[in-house]
Amino acid sequence: MIKRKKVSLKANAFSNWFLLAINVGIGVFLTPFIINNLGNGRYGIWTLVNSVIGYYGIINLGVGSAVTRYIALYTGKKDSGAINETASTTFAMFTVTAAIVTGFSLVFADTFADFFNVDESQKNEFVNTIIILGLTTGITFISNVFTAILTSREHYISVNFFGSILTLVRAMLIVIFVHNGFGITGVAFATFAVSVFQLIIKIVLYNYLSPDIKINFKSIKLNTLKILVLYGGITTIIQIADILRINIDSLVIGRFLTLEAVGIYGVAALLLRYMGKVIISGVSVLNPRFSNLAGSGDSNEQRRLLFKALQLASFISFGMTLFAIAFGPRFIVFWVGKEFAEASYVLIIVSAAYAFDLAQSPSIALLYAKNKHKYYAFYIILEAVANLLISIILVHKFGMTGVAIGTAIPMIISKCIIMPLYVCKIFNLSLKNYLKPFSIPLALSLIVLATIYSTGLSNVISNNDQFLFCVLACTVGAVYMIIALMFMYRDSLNTLLKSNFNLWTIT
Question: N or C: which end of the chain has fewer CB within 10 A?
Answer without folding.
Answer: C
